[in-house]
Design a protein that fits this description.
This protein starts with 5 loop residues before the first strand and ends with a strand. It has 14 helices and 34 strands. The protein is of the alpha+beta class and 591 residues long. The strands form 9 sheets. The protein has a 6-stranded mixed sheet with strand order 8-9-7-10-11-12. 39% of the residues are buried. It has 5 domains: 75 residues, Orthogonal Bundle (Arc Repressor Mutant, subunit A), CATH 1.10.10; 171 residues, P-loop containing nucleotide triphosphate hydrolases (Rossmann fold); 74 residues, Elongation Factor Tu (Ef-tu), domain 3 (Beta Barrel), CATH 2.40.30.10; 114 residues, Rossmann fold, CATH 3.40.50.10050; 95 residues, Elongation Factor Tu (Ef-tu), domain 3. The radius of gyration is 31 Å and the shape is elongated. Helix content is 25%, strand content 35%. Helix 1 crosses helix 2, helix 5 packs across helix 12 and helix 10 runs parallel beside helix 14. It binds guanosine-5'-diphosphate and magnesium ion. Guanosine-5'-diphosphate binds next to helix 4.
């Protein structure tokens, strides 16, 4: 018997559904009793002029009015001991903290303008006009409560941090320009936010423009599965104009609302910890790092370890450049005193002394934390895990040449899910595979698949760095078959031919009884002794062989670089002609 409460005498009954109300009830308890979401209640309270959070206690008067607003009749109950449960059963050590917000969206939809507008309209009194934000994050105040904004607009920065294992953001504000609508980067940002599991709030910007068409955008969002409250969903959408500074307070109030629902808390009674938002080397002051405190209280004089970098906080500044001595969770600060420049997205930890710092740095070095932790997956590793019965979910990023290919491939892939493993296509798009795709793959442990889509140069480099598997296909059934095989643990590693270098035959020399040597010049790449060689004449492959000898002047060599001349002898091939092209091919494992 959980709610052993007694009915007050003399309470009349009516035909509308009744809700029993004790003298005091929290928003959360009321939400549970009425079967509505906490967010609905908090919004209704706001309409009644009351700012409340989910754990707030309401007295009978307020609660009964609210209940009526939802079409119920209040029934006054006398509280029993059990009725007076503590509002929150969470450990007393946890303190409510401000939400941390990132702004995302398509280019030119107003991310920077919105960040500026928020800061300008909500700076602490007295400093208006002289805004000297100089670090990559700031805090504003709304009704006495703080909100932290990360000034690293764009989902790439967000996902890059996540790829390093950092989770900084609680809520992503997706900016959509009301005159332009959902664009490719809107979708990309949405997918990045979803993959990270952060909450999304829509800021419908540029509503001041005469050609703004909010309904069209709401429809587009709904088509993407983002159903806003007005349309019966649970995504908050706030119309704003960053330019005219309209709707900014409304946006902030809604962010606080979501923060309340999320019940964001942090431990404070522990050594401080958090992440690096950005860092740079200042010519005069040395390494400067912007940190976001996530738990504990960071203080000047604290000894810090960031990966393999140590240091002691010599000075600490807030987002206005003011000297401060302490920083609570969700506060962005700039610090002086690290021995070298850490990377964005790295975790910082406060330790008790120099000795502990040394030990931790050593440990981090051994764990390879100095460099990016690569957590890439590949179809062949998936296959290995699948045969060991370990794989539960396979995330895929799918890029295609044309829009029409996306849905059929995505459907076929997701249909490969079975009771043991789930295939989830976390992002799709048309065009080349970009660095942003690779970052998302790194952050979400996903495999990138291109269907008639190739990676950009930057993306190739990044994929190598982050150990992300990029597979390219031009036949749908082959693509599906490979993923299916991987899930069944049956995909064998595959080898592809990679042209490592090309040489042109300049002269042909006799060598011994029957043999001939092609005096050649390396035109591009390099020639290696262990290569397979394709002999190309008039644009056609006329033969294939292996290298039998590779010489530079009189020396046998393993490898020859671009521009140099060499003598090439092949196994079972002597019919060289001047002008032949020798392609040096290496076999590489695809994963
Ligand atoms: P970002 O690329 O998303 O950071 O977009 P910006 O903040 O740089 O804004 C792009 C352009 O849109 C700029 O010319 C802004 O002045 C303009 N802009 C931004 N917000 C608004 C708005 O609310 N109304 C109007 N009319 N223009 C805006
Ligand atoms: Mg911008």
């Amino acid at each position: 018997m959980k709610n052993r409460q007694e009915q007050a005498p003399g309470e009349n009954t009516t035909s509308t559904p009744q809700i029993g109300l004790p003298p005091v009830i929290t928003v959360k308890q009321l939400a549970d009793q009425m079967g509505v979401s906490g967010i609905e209640i908090i919004k209704q309270l706001m309409r009644n002029g009351i700012m409340a959070n989910i754990n707030q206690s309401l007295d009978y008067e307020v609660a009964s009015k609210l209940v009526a607003d939802f079409g119920f009749t209040a029934k006054k109950l006398l509280a029993s001991a059990q009725g007076r449960q503590k509002a929150s059963s969470l450990s007393a050590k946890l303190h409510t903290r401000p939400p941390v917000i990132t702004i995302m969206g398509h280019v030119d939809h107003g991310k920077t303008s919105l960040l500026d507008a928020i800061r300008q309209t909500n700076v602490a009194a007295g400093e208006a006009g002289a805004i000297t934000q100089h670090i990559g994050a700031y805090q504003v105040e709304m009704k006495g409560r703080k909100i932290t904004f990360l000034d690293t607009p764009g989902h790439e920065a967000f996902t890059a941090m996540r790829a390093r294992g950092a989770r900084a953001t609680d809520i992503a504000v997706l900016v959509v320009a009301a005159d332009d609508g959902v664009m490719p980067q809107t979708i990309e940002a949405l997918d990045h936010a979803r993959a990270a599991g952060v909450n999304i709030v829509i800021a419908l910007n540029k509503i001041d423009k005469s050609n703004a068409n909010p309904d069209r955008i709401k429809q587009q969002l709904s088509d993407l599965g983002v159903v806003i409250e007005e349309w019966g969903g649970d995504i908050i959408c706030v119309p704003v104009s960053a330019k005219k500074k309209q709707g900014i307070d409304d946006l902030l109030e809604n962010l606080l609302l979501v923060a309340d629902i999320l019940e964001l808390k942090a431990e404070v009674d522990c050594p401080a910890e958090g992440i690096v938002i950005e860092a740079k080397l200042d010519k005069n002051r040395g390494p400067l790092a912007t940190l976001l405190v996530q738990k504990g209280i960071l203080k000047t004089g604290d000894t810090l370890v960031i990966g393999t970098v140590g240091g002691k906080i010599k000075a600490m500044f807030d987002d206005d450049g003011k000297n401060i001595r302490k920083a609570e969770p969700a506060t962005p600060v700039e610090i002086l005193g690290m021995n070298s420049v850490p990377d964005a997205g790295q975790v910082f930890q406060v330790v008790s002394d120099e000795k502990e710092a040394k030990g931790l740095i050593e440990k981090n070095r051994n764990a390879g934390l100095a460099t990016t932790t690569s957590r890439g997956v590949s179809l062949t590793s998936v296959a290995a895990q699948a045969s060991a019965g370990e794989i539960k979910e396979l995330n895929i990023i799918l890029k295609t040449d044309v829009h029409g290919s996306i849905e059929p491939i995505k459907d076929s892939l997701e249909r490969l899910s079975n009771d043991k493993t789930r295939v989830k296509v976390i992002h799709t798009g048309t065009g080349a595979i970009t660095e942003s795709d690779i970052l998302l793959a790194a952050a979400s442990r996903a495999v990138v698949i291109g269907f008639n889509s190739k990676p950009e140069t930057g993306a190739i480099r990044m994929a190598e760095q982050e150990k992300i598997s990029v597979r390219q296909y031009s036949v749908i059934y082959k693509l599906i078959e490979d993923v299916e095989k991987a899930l069944q643990g049956m995909l064998e590693p595959e080898y592809v031919d990679v042209v490592a270098g090309q040489a042109e035959v300049r002269a042909v020399f006799e060598a011994g009884k029957k043999g001939k040597i092609a005096g050649s010049q390396i035109k591009e790449g390099r020639a290696t002794r262990d290569s397979l060689v394709r002999i190309i004449r008039g644009g056609k492959v006329i033969a294939e062989s292996r290298v039998a000898g590779l010489r530079r002047f009189k020396d046998d060599v393993k490898e020859i670089a671009t521009g140099l001349e060499c003598g090439v002898k092949l196994e079972n091939f002597n019919d060289f002609e001047v002008g032949d092209i020798l392609q040096f091919v290496r076999q590489e494992k695809v994963d």
